Amino acid sequence: MQTLYLGSYTRRESQGIYTLDWNFEAGTLDNLNLIIKEGNPTYLGLTDNNTLVTVTARDNMGGVASYRKDDNGEFKEINHVLLEGAAPCYVGIDNHRQLVYGANYHKGEVTVYQIDETGQLTLTDTIQHEGNGPHANQTSAHAHYADLTPDNRLVVCDLGTDEVYTYDVSSKGKLTEVARLNVAPGTGPRHIVFHPEGKVAYILGELANTLTVVNYDETTGMFSEITTLSTLPIDFDGESAGGAIRISEDGRFVYVSNRGHNSVAVYQTQEEGHRVEKIQTIASEGDFPRDFTLSPDNNWVLVAHQNSDNITLFKRDAENGRLTLKETDILAPECVCTYFA
């Protein structure tokens, strides 16, 4: 049995962070349990020492919060670090340097926090992005992702400026920009995943509904574009936006969710990840697949839907990468983040 953590909005039914029990042998999710009451904990992560770090919002302020699991298995609050305005939309965990990274969509900011042995968070740096793009949702910078590269730099996707930043990170939690990639105007880079070899990455363009394949140079921290593909069927002309992107552990398959088209697109990688080919588009069987994850054994894909409050379970074929629907009605209120621990 393993635990699936669920981050959520708390606008309708949800009250915070939930867990589900994952039986990897039977392929079942059950026992929905509210573990932390928190305002809009839309993204979260766990450190190596069982400290849960989450996005949070309260009293017109936003920031991050930390909780530590006690001897009874219950999470107890350690501290909140809150600032005026909107909360971040992403948190990344750096266990090597004992840091936490935040990406703030509304402010266009990147934040860094030190986390001590007790789980206490302290703000150490803030970087403000500037710029805009041609899309109606790009009137200003919108940092949407901040997490580690394979060589332990920080990569940040800014949806508002159509840029992907690379930063060096000091042991004190200070950022220094070393490279910047400009993607096609109107792309809206949302998230990025890396091939296991560490030299190729895949950028999800939320606004353009695209998958962009890029080279990554560990010497300089620079990205360079190889190719871009649509995540939607050729004949689809409705409204949709990219949701999440994941890659299989062996690097052979990339998965993308489409919010609006309500589907998961499957790509096979070739030539050490430098080339991709779409091999399947399958209905997600829910409304607005904001996030999804592969099970730890990579045999299942679990897709969370923000609007229809359900998780859909797909069996994954490890040989050909394709998905087969198994279950659609697993309750997950306003779920926008899925995290295995």
Explain the overall architecture:
- The chain is mostly beta strands and about 350 residues long.
- About 0% of the residues lie in helices and about 60% in strands.
- It is built from no helices and 28 strands.
- The protein has a four-stranded antiparallel beta sheet with strand order 3-2-1-28, with no helix packed on it. It has a four-stranded antiparallel beta sheet with strand order 4-5-6-7, with no helix packed on it.
- The radius of gyration is 19 Å and the shape is globular.
- The model has no long low-confidence stretch (mean pLDDT about 95).
In short:
GO terms for molecular function: 6-phosphogluconolactonase activity. The protein has strands at 2-8, 16-23, 28-37, 44-46, 51-58, 61-69, 75-84, 90-94, 99-104, 109-115, 121-128, 143-148, 154-158, 163-169, 175-182, 189-194, 200-205, 210-217, 222-230, 241-247, 253-259, 263-270, 275-283, 291-294, 300-305, 310-316, 323-331, 335-340.
What's the arrangement of secondary structure elements?
Layout lengths: L1 E7 L7 E8 L4 E10 L6 E3 L4 E8 L2 E9 L5 E10 L5 E5 L4 E6 L4 E7 L5 E8 L14 E6 L5 E5 L4 E7 L5 E8 L6 E6 L5 E6 L4 E8 L4 E9 L10 E7 L5 E7 L3 E8 L4 E9 L7 E4 L5 E6 L4 E7 L6 E9 L3 E6 L1
Antiparallel strand pairs: 1-2, 1-28, 2-3, 4-5, 5-6, 6-7, 8-9, 9-10, 10-11, 12-13, 13-14, 14-15, 16-17, 17-18, 18-19, 20-21, 21-22, 22-23, 24-25, 25-26, 26-27
Family: Belongs to the cycloisomerase 2 family.
Protein name: 6-phosphogluconolactonase
Pfam families: Lactonase
**Structural class by sheet pairing and helices:** mainly beta
Our estimate of the beta-strand percent is: over 45%
Query: For the largest beta sheet, what order do the strands appear in spatially?
Result: 3-2-1-28
Number of strands: 28
C-alpha geometry: globular
Helix content: under 10%
User: How many helical stretches?
Assistant: 0
The average pLDDT is 97
N-to-C SSE series?
A: EEEEEEEEEEEEEEEEEEEEEEEEEEEE
Largest sheet: 4 strands, antiparallel
Low-confidence stretches: none
N-C termini distance: 11 Å
Give me the Rg, rounded: 19 Å
Protein name: 6-phosphogluconolactonase
Pfam families: Lactonase
GO cellular component, one term: cytosol
Family: Belongs to the cycloisomerase 2 family.
